What we know:
Blueprint: E1 2-6, E2 15-20, E3 23-30, E4 36-41, H1 45-66, E5 71-72, E6 77-78, E7 81-87, H2 94-110, E8 115-120, H3 121-131, H4 134-141, E9 147-153, E10 156-159, E11 173-183, E12 192-201, H5 204-220, H6 222-228, E13 232-234, E14 243-245, H7 247-266, E15 270-271, E16 277-279, H8 280-286, H9 288-291, E17 300-302, E18 305-309, H10 314-321, E19 326-327, E20 333-342, E21 358-368, H11 373-390, E22 396-401, H12 411-428, E23 432-435, E24 445-451, E25 457-466, H13 469-472, E26 477-478, E27 484-485, E28 488-497, H14 498-509, E29 522-526, H15 532-544, E30 549-551, H16 558-567, E31 572-576, H17 578-583, E32 585-590, E33 594-600, H18 601-615
Parallel strand pairs: 15-20, 19-26, 22-23, 29-30, 29-31
Antiparallel strand pairs: 1-2, 2-3, 3-4, 5-7, 6-7, 7-12, 8-9, 9-10, 11-12, 13-14, 16-18, 17-18, 20-21, 21-28, 22-24, 24-25, 25-28, 26-27, 31-32, 32-33
Helix pairs in contact: 1-2, 3-4, 6-14, 11-12
Bound molecules: zinc ion (ZN) (2 copies).
Amino acid sequence: MYRDAVNALGRDPEVFAVLENGVLKGLYEPARDGAEIVLVDFDSDEGKDLYRHSSAHIMASAVNELYPRVKYAIGPAILDGFYYDFETESPFTEEDLRAIEDKMREIVKRDLPFRKTMVSREWAMEEFRRRGDKYKVEILEGIPDGEVSLFQHGEFVDLCIGPHLPTTGRLRAFKLLSVAGSYWRGDSGRDRLQRIYGTSWNQEGELEAYLHRLEEAKKRDHRRLGRELDLFSLHEDVGGGLVFWHPKGGRIRTVIEDFWRKRHLESGYEIVYTPHVGRSSLWASSGHLEFFKDSMYPPMKMDDSEFYVKPMNCPFHIKIYKTALRSYRELPLRWAELGTVYRYELPGVLHGLLRVRGFTQDDAHLFVRPDQVDEEMERVLAFCLDILRSFGFTDFDLFLSTRPEKAVGRPEDWDKATVALRGALEKSGLPYRMDEGGGAFYGPKIDLKIKDAIGRSWQCGTIQFDFNLPERFDLAFVGEDGQPHRPYMIHRALLGSLERFFGVLIEHYGGDFPIWLAPVQAKVLPISKDNLDYAREVRDALVRGGLRVEVDERNEKIGAKIRDAELVKIPYMLVVGKRDQEAGTVSVRRRGKGDQGAVSRDHFLQKTLAEVEAHQ
Ligand SMILES: [Zn+2]
Ligand SMILES: [Zn+2]
């Protein structure tokens, strides 16, 4: 263990850093009783941010040494890395990035301490004005008069709250990744800046693993695979963020939907269908026009009314609820809908299938008696996890968000709902994290994130209580006592939306879907055109048997047919030649595994059906 005194927190010399085997563990301060208090743990998010933000300072100082005329904007830590915005005369090139990296290595070697100085705002303003750093001056203009902190390592001074690493020498593994255009304060009306992105890690191995993940992510990019495998497209001329499912994408969606419906019906859900548009009065009652209007498509005028395309399905399910006087005996009601909704998203944030404007939620609303809520939450969470596991996800991040300061609903209802959600999480046996005060204003919730094959986390399901809508629409059921009672309402999505989930699935599997999801499960490859009729006969028989099968009708050599089928990741190739035709067999090739020998058509069908069944 190694310790060095730090004044990075401006509390020199009481703070010290602790290293183990050369790896930073944390920043500590001594407590009165001789024990130590951890100020920053480098395994925590806060520690990582500190590390990466310090990296941004070091990068800026390297830029300063190489290009003294550059002006500095801001340099925060971000997920897995950091950036710094600069104003330059000409854009940074790939070579510049490598030169900056080399200079950073020098600065790390110099092992310069980060020193904090408190100065008056006036003094700082004068100093940055003298240096020509107009962005720092503008930041200072927005700060109330008083003292501000400056951090300096070597000659480089930055306006910053801190904290930072003790010295530049503590930065271990880093790499500059890319440069992109940006705007001062993110405003396209303001000065154009150059943003350099970098990543930094406490250990070499972590950096390598991260760079490998980036490489993998590029290979798995669903937008590229969507094109190569002919799954979907987006068309700016039709509208941003609107998804076109091609036949092969459509096949996968059909499989997902069929599976989804089957599992819901087996689990006590009913399936409902509701309209795509609704009169403005509905959205006024639901509160959407008050709180959610900016995220809605603008209204259409018709019959002296305004109609809105739905951004959510909830009010429609409530309309169904209210068509009858509900008895306590009917509850819980579980209504699910693959409901297509439209929401306005800024053009700049749209991203393939992951951030779109039109999407189909796998929505459900549960109307539950207070005495049923514990059991129902346990059940719904288990159902969500079970479905997600069926798609090959085994690693989950679970979050429980509780009552925020501003909230509607009775505190006792919040408590009861939170207890039920917590109980469900405990029962699942999975670890979960608390997001205290992070719930929506209308109820506590569980958020479910899935980890994909390369360790990235994706938000999918939500189980969300709502104490607002039942009030607004005056929902009731008749209790055993003959009196009206308010049901609990729970919004639930488990895949999130079909579009986004499809994007995640493509990246998770890298387009190499398991047999039950593969859009084409087998491709029949005739060796010559004499075998074409037989190939079609095989296809027809297998399709009738319930498989998704195509024939390669092209006049190509068999080697080319095999290669092309492998390329679009088809699980089975069925080569058919003269001998197969005579014997009624197919010669099976498994993608990535090669020749599996000749079997009868029916044998292949039964075996593959069993394989499909086992995956579900
Ligand atoms: Zn800083
Ligand atoms: Zn809802």
